[in-house]
Amino acid sequence: MNFGLYREMLRIAPIRRLLIVGMIARFPHSAAGVLLTLHVVNTMDRGYAAAGAVAAVVTIGIAVGAPWRGRRVDTIGLRKALIPSVIAEAVIWSTAPHVSFEWLLVLALVGGVFTLPVFSVVRQSLGVLATGEQRRTAFALDSIATELIFMMGPALGAVIATQISSVIGLTAVGLSAAVAGLLLIWFNPPTRSPEPEKAVTAVDEQEAAAATAVAVAPANIQEAPMELTGAGLPDGPQNMFERLRHGVAGNFTWFSPAVAVVFAVAIGAGLLLSSTDVGIVASVEAGGNPSEVGIVFVAWCAASAIGGIVYGAMKRRFSPMSLLLTMAVLTMPMAFATDTLSLALLSIPAGLLCAPVLSAASERVADLVAENRRGEAMGWYGSSMTAGTALGAPVAGLAIDVIGPWSGFLLAGGAAAVLVLATLSARRLFLRSAPVR
What we know:
CATH architecture: Up-down Bundle
Number of strands: 0
Oligomer: single chain
Shape: globular
Mean pLDDT: 76
Largest sheet: none
Strand content: under 5%
Distance between the termini: 39 Å
Order of helices and strands: HHHHHHHHHHHHHHHHHH
Radius of gyration: 23 Å
Number of domains: 1
CATH class: Mainly Alpha
């Protein structure tokens, strides 16, 4: 291990500024999850399944919007791409606390679509500012910074919701997120290298090959029998289909089996983290002291920060899949907690691997995808994580309502472990069936 890597990284002024701005921009939404849960459960007097449904709708919106937002950053630039988010954050989350549950679901979906894309923007910019082995340390630093925020955000959200008002808390989240968006627009972190010609990778060569295939395809199609291709018509249905197929393929030439594995890690991580999140709130709430939820989040996130510090100083690279599987197994013992203190202590082993999982996965995406498509790829990576979150929160909430708070942790760890094993099996079958060249 070489902890001096952190000192070297923080000496780079653009990276240091980016990490600070990223922390500020993440803070509002770090409190939003607990605020939404307690708003639905306490203020609206509904169960954890309903709270999980709202969380799921938000994350579905994020999953739908993230690739589109990432692509907009790639095509029109960061500043223009963030303007809709700044407006939506202020308007939607100032309105959502005052509406019925049905309208809350609608606003949560729209708010998710236009959520400030802090995660993908920061990770995309770090992928530009740091190269090679530096990326592991840079992404670890970002994960550590994120954990520091999540040590404070949920605790503050719980205090505001229980001691003041969840309505005031959600309104503050929206206005603060809008201010954070303006800060990102002002800072305008780089999302492309200053010399893009030096950023050409194997992915670019694949895109060129795909473009050649598109150009050649019509000629090949026309040589086929007319009754099968419709080539006798200027725009035969088969020709239109082929053009569409090649066009879609050309837009996703960056996507590969290796990238698919990373996205599976993101789904599993989102499922595991959201289920654990709901389980922590439900367990502490069941103990009769909801304001103590911050104690557990501090222990959980502090462990993640420590794990991130250690991982970022390592020279050896670890598989995101193996890290996620270990984290899933270590999450299940949280079901045996008897009070807030024991829950906080049992959250530490799993927390130690949280930041390393996310750092390893982000580093892998940055290595696999060319930077001219990295914004879109990071958007899909974020969508994969939020898809897992959308699945984990309501399912864990339903299990908690029917069985008990402890069931959320067993469900979270078991589901993430099954996903890892299924992905590894699918990858093994793919490699066996792939033709040898």
